[in-house]
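Final report, Chapter 2: Outcomes

The project's central promise was a pipeline that accepts a single protein chain and returns its three-dimensional structure in a standardized token representation, suitable for archiving and comparison. That pipeline is now operational. To close this chapter, we reproduce one record exactly as it appears in the project archive, with the input sequence first and the structure output second.
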Amino acid sequence: MAVITCIEDLKALHRRRVPRMFFDYCESGSWTESTMRANEDALTALALKQRVAVNLEGRSIASTMIGQDVAMPVALAPTGLTGMQHADGEILAARAAARFGVPFTLSTMSICSIEDVAENTDSPFWFQLYVMRDRGFIGRLIDRAKAAGCSALVLTLDLQIMGQRHKDIKNGLSTPPKLNLGSFAEMASKPRWSLKMLGTRRRSFGNIVGHAEGVENLTSLGQWSAEQLDPTLSWDDVQWVKERWGGKLVLKGIMTVEDARHAVASGADALVVSNHGGRQLDGAPASIDVLPEIVATVGDEIEVWVDGGIRSGQDVVRCLALGAKGTLVGRAFLYGLGAMGEAGVTRCLEIIANELDLTMAFCGLRDVRDIDRHVLWGA
């Protein structure tokens, strides 16, 4: 096997080992994908300032996120269909994250259920929630997350309606998938992936099938899903979720100062500056470009995190330099999962941690919590 030295190596291996339908699902943005590309480009454009003749012994990249000790200020973001990148993918990613010492966030639209992940892991994880029309189901979902010992709820606010992703339409990725001869041929060309998937019982949406009223299989799930995204979602609903949950709450999808102020007023513990990885509003700015204004406005009142385009430890440094107290990575860990399963997620985290540590040192710092604008040119 080739030596894996960076996230791009994992991406290349992921592309070779996973059917195109699911690789493209991970890799796609909405419409022209301009916002997805901007997330990466805007981070890369931030030049780092090297310092020399500084004592660099005893370095630490450990930090905290909403009071939880973390090996580095990085969490695994919620990603739908994770268990289709690799069999039992959510369980494997949660195990890798726990062993490394960073949080894992399970998506509402996961393949493995909340209970599956809890039964097969030893550490608490976070749960990501979409608010749907069926509030009874959502209430039960919150209660299930509490019963499973989830230590934080991540409420995603920017999926009231679904962005159009051209690749998914062309690949027939829907609920249920529109499979054809080409799809079956593609899957047959990935024997490692296919054998793993044949060996697991987890091939549907575990949090929904058998739990939502009238949803007993993929066919009924398709109709239910099409009706459930809730365009009426409001800040009153956020308050209802907060009260029903009663624990640590993170609000994801904040891109303006106005919404950041609402997040503070809601009593949430953290917010995530996020454009959904460029998968919703194409033409929106990169997450990193709006981070500084939001930090300047509410950073003393709530923890501000950021996601979107983070592909290296250097990108984590850039985010921290502009005021983020934490970061989330999605595609990066999916590349590792699709490439090598649990070991690939671990390798992803090792790469990011090593790059974070070395970049911090090159910038003349020994503690990740000391990273600020002084490590950037022109800042």
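Archive annotation: The CA atoms of residues 74 and 327 lie 5 Å apart.
This record, like all others produced under the grant, will remain available to the consortium after the project formally closes.
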